[in-house]
Amino acid sequence: MQGFVFFGLKPSQPTDPKNWLKFLHRALSGIGYSNPKEICFHAWRHLWCSRMMDIIGDKRVVMAGSGHKTETMLDHYAEHPEADTTMNRLRNAEAELFLPVFNELDGGGITVQAVEHLKNARIV
Fold first, then answer.
1. Cβ partners under 8 Å of residue 95, min gap 6
2. Could you tell me if 45 and 77 are in contact, meaning their C-beta atoms sit under 8 angstroms apart?
3. Three-state DSSP class for 122?
4. Among residues 4, 9, 65, 105, which one has the fewest Cβ atoms lying within 10 Å of its Cβ?
């Protein structure tokens, strides 16, 4: 993979954050964001790494996109999992794990409570 996640006018060169940061701050001010100066280019790197780990889950793939050479650095940038995302992934895994068990034990006729729990847990 060649290039940068945040490339400049040419994909082979990184962007200079100062070029667009002032416009980002203006846009945040324009929508009423209380402290636009707290958002910096570096925050986008953390956000990108964290969300890519949530979505992809494979460190090697995310490292290829972020340019990190070690898992330690990627872990530093992607160490902030979203609580909702984490819980939804756990609920989905729980439903995947237990639904076949309920079917097996119940002869295919899952109890109403089990179905409701799994429906509420599953995000589709």
1. 118, 121, 122
2. yes
3. coil
4. 9
DSSP string, 48-104: HHHHHHHHT--HHHHHHHH--SSHHHHHHHT----HHHHHHHHHHHHHHHHHHHHHH
Task: Give the CA count within 13 Å in the CB-facing half-sphere of 45.
Answer: 18
Rounded distance between C-alpha atoms, residue 121 and residue 88, angstroms: 7
Give how far Cα 36 sits from Cα of 19, 58, 75, Å.
Answer: 16, 32, 26
Do residues 45 and 66 touch, judged by C-beta distance below 8 A? yes
Give the Cα separation of 101 and 92 in Å (integer): 15
Q: How far apart are CA 102 and CA 113, in angstroms?
A: 11
pLDDT grade, residue 124 (50/70/90)?
A: very low
Written as six digits, the tokens of 37 are 């100066």
For helices 59-66 and 41-55, angle between their N-to-C axes, nearest 10 degrees: 150
